[in-house]
Amino acid sequence: MSGAADEARRAVAAVWRAESARVVATLTRYTGDFSLAEDLAQEAVADALAQWPSSGIPRNGAAWLTTAAKRKAIDVWRRRERYDARVAALAHALDEAQPDADPWDPDEIDDDVLRLVFVACHPVLAPPARVALTLRVVAGLEADEIARAFLVPTATVQQRIVRAKRALAEAGVPFEVPPPAERPMRMAAVLGVLYLVFNEGHSASAGEDLLRPDLAREAIRLTRILAALLPGEPEAHGLLALMELTASRFAARIDARGEPVLLADQDRRRWDRGAIARGRAALARVDAMGRGRGPYALQAAIAECHALAPDVARTDWALIVRLYEALAQVAPSPVVDLNRAVAVAEASGPEAGLRIVDELVAGGRLRTYHLLPAVRGELLARLSRDDEARAEFAAAAELVRNERQRAVLQARAAAPGAATSRAR
């Protein structure tokens, strides 16, 4: 590859990564067709790769891509014999376009991107399709990048994206921010997708690596954009706070060999103080709105307790228990109860935590969740009930899909009393 071609390839990749959401959103607004807009944007990227090595890299690459894609839209409509007022309007807009104008200010995010996020996370799509489409059209990731992140074949991701576009078209999903009456439910879907992406980066569900920081960072970036678009939406800021505070520990969560390091053993000097400050600031914005803390903000408050504590022993476990109790009120789930059991064990002793865990076992709702036997094994080990702990760790190792986590659980099953690693 020549130097000019390589430079152009890097420039196109950078522009696409930073501005793809805005380009696709703008095209969707012009064409009224989400699927067509994404296809046109991809064709414009191909043109850029071919032309920029000889013509030079434009000052405003995103505007260049948008203009090129709009011209292709006109060609499409001509071929479809729909050369009507829509073409005239678009042509007029092209006359006014200035490809070498100042680049978009990244801090000035228009409503088109917000519309795009809501379309990609529309309820007519299944959760895996929402994730794939969001990462493709909002984050600008290629299908093979998404496939690698979620350990599925590239063809699977491509099929999900194609089917998602078809489903949106068949449902006639409009390119718009939902009306206020629908916004809470739709907002929950958007935040749920972003949290799902972050969690996969925070704790990989399968594979050999415990963390996928790139995926987590992408989720944080998108959530930051969403929070900027919706400054009065507390849960957007709550989710951002939760992500920042959780991600602050990434560097200390694995050792040099990629092995997991439990909370009690982490070198807290390696925690990212900048991320902690950003997370606390986002949580403060939630509180400043005066509308109470939702599920994400409550979880962020728990993460803040950990971030401020000098070590596990001096963590305010009583406050964490109260926060989990509040979380169970607004978002009840057996996973919340399991996490509360861990906090109760730290605050009041392993017997108290074990009683909650045993209630969850009796309820049977987490029978396939590896952390249920893992937590029970940990509490049993702290009570010196080693044979029972060994069985629980072995059961957890059978359930988990991540190789790093499985190795840790197998080691605990072999020697349950060797360490009583406190708090996950």
Q: What is the structure about, briefly put?
A:
The protein is mainly alpha-helical and 424 residues long. Among the domains are: 82 residues; 102 residues, Serine Threonine Protein Phosphatase 5, Tetratricopeptide repeat (Alpha Horseshoe), CATH 1.25.40.
Which key phrases capture this entry?
70% helix, mainly alpha, disordered C terminus, 424 residues, Serine Threonine Protein Phosphatase 5, Tetratricopeptide repeat
What percentage of the residues does DSSP assign to strands (E)? under 5%
Could you tell me the mean pLDDT? 86
Structural class: mainly alpha
- CATH architecture label of the domain at 316-417: Alpha Horseshoe
What fold name stands as the CATH topology of the domain at 316-417?
Serine Threonine Protein Phosphatase 5, Tetratricopeptide repeat
Poorly predicted runs of 5 or more residues? 103-109, 420-424
